[in-house]
Amino acid sequence: MKLWIRQHRVALALTTIMLIAAFMRLWQLDNTPPGLHPDEAANGLDVFDILQGHLQVFFERNGGREGLFFYLQAVGVSIFGNTILGLRIAPALLGTAAVAAVYLWAASWFNRRTALIAALFMAVTPWAVIISRDGFRASMLMLMIPLTLWLITKAIRSNRWYWFAGAGVSFGLGFYTYIAYRMFPLALVAAAAFVLIWRRNWIQQYWRGLAVFGLAAAIVLIPLGLYAIGNPSAIAGRPGGVSFANPDLNHGNPIGTLADSTIKTVLMFNVHGDENYRHGMGGESMLNLFVGIMFVLGIIIAISRIKRLSYFALLMVFGSMLLPAALTAEGLPHGLRSVGALAPAVVLAALGTNFLLYQWQRTFPLNPVARNSGTAAIVILLALTVYHGYASYFIAWANSPEVYKSYSEENVALSEYYNANPVSGKRYVVAGDYTLQTVQYLTHNKSQWQSVDPQKVDGIPLEPGVAKEFAIFSYDKDKALERLRLKFPKGTVSPYYSPVSNDELYVLYRVPAQ
Description:
The protein is an alpha/beta fold and 514 residues long.
């Protein structure tokens, strides 16, 4: 038995890590996160279009978004219906697969022990868990970047055309995921330039494979390219609005704004993280203390070995995927825009941890007690990292009232009320279109209601004999209630409260049939 375990220890360790990753992403997925943000719900509205046969490569709702993620979400919605779980099962499974992709990538560039540690960090780091359980398309970067890098490595080492084709397909598909992926090719160009400096005949050796790679990527990109030609402004998307070069954000000092954005982005790993609970832990550093220290050590190691391709390329991938956040000037540090840097970050942390293990064992080559004591200490730190990931997400984060607010608890509460309480009269939600996306998604084919702009309440007809019920979210209720009372003076107000924070979520203004 011991011999079998020793022979299969890597497979057993990886299986254990994958089970941990699956647990961290799938447990209580139907109610944690506790709500559904309008940006997530917008995906669901596009999923409805997909399920009705309206197939697109790019969806212009919500400022424009790449479409691959929505097709995967459509599978979940077709199975679980228009529920929160229906939208979040796809990113949870993709996030689990990302852990395996990180292992494959790190093992192909470094060694299996480093790869196992990197996979473990990816499995339990709260940043990765939060994004994997959100319904945001950015979660795909955690999978696509390490997967593409592993496939490219397999292609170059085997020099087989099918690996180059697979790498090209993966590379091309990445452009259908999230806008931040557009910075990823910079790392590949830098790595290719590095190789050409040291091996000038490299292209001659691999030109056929590189041609297959380019052809496969080009074929995959044809639909998106054709769309971009016809709709250049839609593809450009939101970056201009949040760029450091935007005068409304830099206030006439673009260089200073860029420097500030870069500093905030770099420091988010160990000092101050994303304050948005949909992307982080409310300002806590994106990596815990142990992983953060190992991350810094890993950077030092990579820089000291930068003449080796794997270390140089790792730093280039990490740096390029920080650019989508560093080049903006809004909401920083931003865990969603920089999520592409998460996979290289955990690999860097794993390099630091592996180096620590190696140096300890090298220091005590003939003293088994000292060797085992040091190894045990690091194993304990890894175990504490697992517990920290669980406690941080499922205990601290999941039970924070701020999380409920961040995921638009009030929209879900109103949707649940509508679905459970049919009414014979007319229902109106007094709110803007953006806010209503959550209610639209969750009540689709389940309950009927109409939206009305808060400024246009006066235009609702009196309709004698028809009862009316108006829902108004508490953060925007005063002026709307005032208008309703003037229009329908016989109405009554019923407030509804959060069971977590006891804050008022929305009020119902009920007008009896007259």
